[in-house]
Amino acid sequence: MNNLQNKVVFLTGGSSGYGKATAKALTEAGAKVVIAARNEKNLAAAKEEIGCDGMLAMDVTSFSDWEKAKKYMLDNYGGIDILINNAGGGVSIKDTVDQEVSDIDRTITLNLNSAIYGSKVFGDIMKSNRRGTIINFSSVCAKEAWAGWTVYAASKWGVLGFSKGLYVEMRPYNVRVSCVIPAAASTGFQRNAGIGDVDNLLQPEDIASTVLYICSLPDHAVVEEVTVWGIDQEVNPL
């Protein structure tokens, strides 16, 4: 496997959950990791705990913030090797007919648009350099169906489809695109979505190990997509 020493990583949603655990794993592997999130206080606390290289407070739903992130990475690191589009959220877990239009728009923008924005901005650098790795986070909601999760699922289906198409575009330039598809885990996601907390066997560190594996593969090897379940989660697909 490739050595991640001094590889430059930009990771969104880095102040908690999958993002924080992944930033820690990559930092321990020797990468120069910059974490991004909206809450600067939480971001600073995560950076201190992880010991990663840098941080940037930003709103991933704002394209202008992505342009600022690109400038930050070019000015401070000269570019980027790995982009991890992890930021996302449930926003509102309700039946479709009960959704507020503002929540529908927020869900799509937060989960799908943000990954597209980041891939556009940093994919341009990778295409020019003819190297790089982009990892987008989807969800098992893109594979299975649960009532109340329709809008969130639509956004994550979009991430999966976008990732497949992006890989086709970027492969000729030696840029790898992977999609990580996690199941329910103990990350605080359910609490943030307003549906209570759930104690799952699957942990953020399990997903971090998956991302670390993808990033560590030789440049000629690509994981198109990978689904990670906790063995305690029962699946009753439609």
In short:
This protein is α/β, with parallel strands linked by helices and 238 residues long. The protein contains seven helices and seven strands; from the N terminus they run βαβαβαβαβαβααβ.
Query: Major sheet: order of its strands?
Result: 3-2-1-4-5-6-7
Structural class call reads alpha/beta
For the sheet with most strands, the description reads: 7 strands, parallel
Task: List low-pLDDT spans.
Answer: none
Our count of helices gives: 7
Report how far apart the termini are.
Answer: 39 Å
How do the helices and strands follow one another from N- to C-terminus? EHEHEHEHEHEHHE
Mean pLDDT: 93
Number of strands: 7
Helix content: 40-55%
Global geometry = globular
Radius of gyration (CA) equals: 17 Å
Strand coverage percent = 15-25%
Question: Overview of this structure, please?
Answer:
It contains seven helices and seven strands. With 238 residues, it is an alpha/beta fold. The protein has a seven-stranded parallel beta sheet, with helices on both faces. The N and C termini lie far apart (39 Å).
